[in-house]
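Justification of computing resources. Each target in the renewal requires a structure prediction run like the one illustrated here; the chain below, 276 residues long, is used simply to show the kind of job we budget for.
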Amino acid sequence: MKKRLITALFACLCITVAQAQHAGRFLDLQLGGGLHSLQYHNLNGQNHFGAGGQFNVAYRYMFHPNWGFSAGFELNYSHAQLQLDGTHTYYDAEKGQDYAYTFENFVEHNNFLDFNVPVEMVFQTAINEQWSFLCGLGVKLAFYEYNNFAAKGILDDGTNRDEQFTASAQFGSELPTIGCDALIDLGFHYAFNERIAIYTGLYASYGLTNHLLEHDRPIIGGDYPYGGVTGSNACPYANSVTAGIKIGFTYSFPNRDSLEEEPGEAELADPHTVAY
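Resulting structure tokens:
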């Protein structure tokens, strides 16, 4: 008797879970924020991660109750803070002259705006009738659109010591045109009804390609004014890094089968109705 009761309860649970997750088509709108920055390599200074955010719109197709894929568009904002230390040297071959610049309490802020196309393989499983767990793993193509910098600190060129040095610039073409990041999403859906659900979760991504272009010009020296880290050879390589929290909502498109009228339904409802 107990075995039958346990079997019946387990069967009911399986039916409930099966109803909570299903194959279909979904529209996901999500807003996220957290650590959004760049990891600079071989920089003569210190790299401090900054905060940023993103907005995602994605189409998700679940070809199986547990498996599917998604693709969409993402607007991403990142910020990095650099503290430049020590002396930077530059040799001007045309003039045959050496230049040396010493940075003290010198901080540069970098801001980046990217347009991304994420593509993910998605796994989902139901927890109960309303809650489900999702995991997405994939890559995103990153189109680097815009960046700027603002720098401030003490700059000493050996002759003059400027204790209130400032510099800033806006770039539109100082970054690669396209890059690639690996990404992961972990989150939960709470279904209000058959069509609407809310989402909350975590996300992270890491750049697989260089976020910077190669430059021959120094960060400063000779006829070159201060050009910032992204516009000079001060740093050869940098990866984009993000990690944060997402919230959003999901709309479930009606099944095509559910939109089809049952045979004879129109005639039964009103025999005088004319079908167009």
